[in-house]
Amino acid sequence: xxxxxxxxxxSSSAPDTTIDLAAVRxxxxxxxxxxxxxxxxxxxxxxxxxxxxxxxxEDIVHDVFVALPESxxxxxxxxxxxxxxxxxTTRVTLMHERRASRLVSNDSLVLTxxxxxxxxxxxxADHVYGALRKLQPALRHVFVLRVLHELPHAEIAxxxxxxxxxxxxxxxxxxxxxxxxxxxxx
Length: 186
Known about the structure:
The protein is built from 8 helices and 2 strands, in the order ββαααααααα. It has 186 residues and is mainly alpha-helical.
């Protein structure tokens, strides 16, 4: 099977089209452009939230797309293609952060979330994302993947290379720290 129906649940505004995986594997620019149009926004949002840097997130998405034809050799065409791309983006983001081995910058984080109306509650959004930036990367990664992208703990554990229990503990700690950081906001 070399074609997948879309839209993916990760990109609800994507048109109902088909991706020709054989063409993507071959590096066909039109096929890659189709994948980019339908999935890049979700990938960029995830990478931005995990790295707390728009510039780093753009680099990560670029790296994913440059290596996509080769990466598809590992895609078994089980499950949803969009979910596989999100897992791939998560792995590339983690590798990028390990290579960088630097503290997370507090100067740029994309303020995009389905639960916060940025035009109406800019101050609240700034506080929430400021608190999210203050979390340790390990805690922030689990929080972003579980709460904002709704991945199950088993999938988070597999992607991050930790146990399911560690994922649950990190989520609990991140929620506790966020509550403490946001105390007095309500």
